[in-house]
Specification:
It is a single chain. This protein has one domain (6-31, 40-142). By secondary structure, it is mainly α. α1 runs parallel beside α4, α4 (61-74) runs antiparallel to α5 (79-92) and α5 (79-92) runs antiparallel to α7 (111-131). The chain contains eight helices and no strands.
Length: 145
């Protein structure tokens, strides 16, 4: 198989991406307690905003979710805050489609690009608004497993 083969490049990229996420998750698990961030970590609404901002900054909800899972596994992040952060990451990931729309449209997205971006953003925002008030019951239910 040649190095220029698209199939080879795709598979190699996925392997490198998976390996990077595993390393990142391991690093997050080893962080332990984050005393200087206690106020934010124990407030689901701040974690919701943090999930949005972090995902907007690094354009990867997978990376945000991996970080959240690592922090929960290490005991540094309580489950209700983690759920809020994942909801925030789902909204933050809509920034990617807006950025792509801007690149394709040479400015603000128009036409079908704008419609897709609005629906994607709207559905994720609606889901977050509907679930955010119920984070504590959701966390209690999930913690049973």
């Amino acid at each position: 198989m040649e190095m220029t083969n698209p199939l080879f490049q795709t598979i190699l990229g996925l392997i490198i991406f998976y390996f990077g996420l595993k390393l990142f998750s391991g690093g997050m698990k080893s962080m332990g307690k984050l005393e200087h961030l206690e106020f934010f970590i124990h407030n689901p609404y701040w974690m919701f905003l943090g999930g949005i901002v972090c995902t907007l900054l690094w354009q990867s909800s997978s990376l945000s979710t991996t970080a959240i899972i690592g922090l929960v596994a290490s005991g540094a992040l309580p489950l209700p805050s983690a759920i809020a952060a994942v909801l925030g990451a789902n909204i933050g990931t809509t920034g990617t489609i807006w950025l792509a729309g801007i690149m394709v449209s040479d400015g603000m997205p128009t036409g079908i690009t704008k419609q897709i971006a609005l629906i994607h953003t709207g559905v994720n925002a609606l889901m977050a608004v509907m679930l955010l008030p119920f984070i504590q019951p959701i966390a209690r239910f999930i913690s049973k497993f």
